Amino acid sequence: PAPATSDHSAHHGPGSRSVETLIADPTRKADVLVNLVAASATLTIGSKPTPGFTVNGTSPGPTITAKEGQLVEVRLRNESVADGVALHWHGLDVPNAMDGVAGVTQDAVPVGGEYVYRFVAEQVGTYWYHSHQVSHEQVIRGLFGAVVITPADVDRTVADVLAVSHVYPNGVKTLNGQPGNLQVPAKPGQRVRLRLVSTDDGPVAVWSASPYRVLAVDGYDLHEPGEVRGEAVILTAGGRVDLGLLMPPDGSAVRVQVSKGTAVILGAGPTPAEPVQPLDPVDLLDYGTPRPDGLGFDSAAVDRRFDYRVGYRPGFVRGRPGLWWSINGHLYPDVPMFMVREGDVVVMRIDNRSGEVHPMHLHGHHAVVLSRNGVPASGSPWWIDSLNVENKEVYEIAFVASNPGIWMDHCHNLNHAAEGFVAHLMYEGVTTPYTIGGPSDNHPE
C-alpha cells in the first residue's frame, strides 16, 4: 500500500503544477452567468431574528441552474462578511482552482473583493454551494444555496421540486429558508422528482406513507431503483437524494416528512397527518440492481490503498488541551496527506471508532461504495461524495484519481472539521501558493 504522509508542504520541482493552473478553458465563453453578493445580515426565520448571512439578500441564496455541458461562470462579491468568504461547490467535481477552499485553492475574498468561479456543468444532478471560510459559522448562519444540473432534454411532464433542509442557529427547522411545511403544486397522476438537500451537521431521516423510489444519491442515478414502502432514507450531512413519487389519481396530497417538524406537501388536497417514522432505513448497499456495464473502471486493479481510521483521544490542537478527533491516531495538523498519481484506482477503508457518526466528504471526486462491515455491495452502484459513517462502521470505497489537485477529505459536521477533523487527497506534482492563516487569514473550517 502507498503510504499516507502527514507532510502538508508542497514542494516545487520539475513538472510541478500550481492549483491556480487547474481551471476550465479560459477562452470558452460562459453559457450561464451568475452574480452573487455575500453579506452580513439579520435573518428573520419565523419570529426569531438571528445574526447571519445572505447571498443576494436571501438565505438560502439563489438556486443556480444549468443544463448538462454548459459552462457556468459565477462572480462572487463580498459586500460585508468580515471574516472573508469563499464558495465551495459541494458534490460538483470542478477543476481544483474552482473548489473554493480558503487556504488551499484560493485566498478568502475580503470585504469589497471579488472572485470568479468557472466550471463546466458535466454532472447532471442535485448539488449545493456553501462557504468554505469559517464554514462552521458561516454555513449554519445562512451562507449557502442549491445547484441543479439538468439534462439537455428535460422531461417537462415531471414536477421538479427542490427542498433544502436547514436548521438556523436559533433552532428553527426550515425548508427553502421557511419554517414548517413546504407546500408545492402537483397534478393528480403526475410523476414528481423531489430533490432533497441537507445542509446541516447531522443525518436527516426522510420518509412517507406513500410509496417512492430513490432515484439518485449525491447527483448520481441509481440503477433500477425499486419501490420503497415502510422505510426511511437517511440523508447524511451535505448529502442529497432525489426521490421519485407518483401523485394519486384522486387528487390527494402526498406528504414527505423531512425529519420531525418539517415536511414537503405535494398537491392541493387536504394535508395528510405526519406518518409514523419507520424503524428501518433503506439500505443502499443492496438497493436496486447492478449495472450490466459495471462501475466504469476495474475496482480490482487497485493502485493505492489507504486507511482512514477515525478516533477520539486526548491531546493538543492549536495549543489547546482536550479530547480531539484523530485520523490514523494523529491530531491536527499532523494528519494524513493521501498521495496519488493521476489515473490511479484508489481504495480507501474508512473505520470509525470515535463514538459518534461522521458524514465523510471527499472534494473533487465521487467514490463508489464497495462494502460495509465486510459485506460487499450487491445492488445498484452507490456513488457518493458524502457518506454517513456510524460509530463502529467500516466502509470500503473506491474512486479513480482523475481530477488533479489538492482536495479536502473531511467530516462534514463542520464543527468537527473546525476541531481538526480534516485530511487531504493530494496529487503528485501539484503545489499551492495558499496557506492557512497568512495575510488573508484563511480559515477553511
Which key features would you list for this structure?
445 residues; mainly beta; seven-stranded mixed β-sheet; 2 helices; 35 strands; disordered N terminus
Walkthrough of the structure:
This protein is mainly β and 445 residues long. 2% of the residues lie in helices and 43% in strands. The chain is built from two helices and 35 strands. The radius of gyration is 21 Å and the shape is globular. The model is unreliable at 1-12 (pLDDT under 50).
The overall strand count is 35
Mean pLDDT equals: 95
Main β-sheet: number of strands, strand sense, barrel status? Answer: 7 strands, mixed
In terms of per-residue confidence, which ranges show pLDDT below 50 for 5 or more consecutive residues? 1-12
Name the helicity range. Answer: under 10%
CA-CA gap between termini: 30 Å
Number of helices: 2
Shape: globular
Q: Which percent band covers the strand fraction?
A: 35-45%
Backbone CA Rg? 21 Å
Give me the side-by-side strand order of the main sheet. Answer: 13-12-11-15-20-17-18
Structural class: mainly beta
Layout: helices, strands, pairs:
Elements: E1 4-5, E2 17-18, E3 32-45, E4 48-55, E5 64-67, E6 71-78, E7 87-90, E8 114-120, E9 125-131, H1 135-138, E10 144-150, E11 159-167, E12 173-175, E13 178-179, E14 182-184, E15 191-198, E16 204-208, E17 213-217, E18 220-221, E19 233-235, E20 240-246, E21 254-258, E22 263-266, E23 304-317, E24 320-327, E25 337-340, E26 345-352, E27 358-362, E28 367-372, E29 375-376, E30 383-384, E31 386-389, E32 394-400, E33 406-411, H2 414-418, E34 422-427, E35 430-431
Parallel strand pairs: 2-35, 3-6, 5-10, 11-15, 14-22, 23-26, 25-34
Antiparallel strand pairs: 1-25, 3-4, 6-8, 7-9, 9-10, 11-12, 12-13, 15-20, 16-19, 16-21, 17-18, 17-20, 21-22, 23-24, 26-32, 27-31, 27-33, 28-29, 28-30, 28-32, 33-34
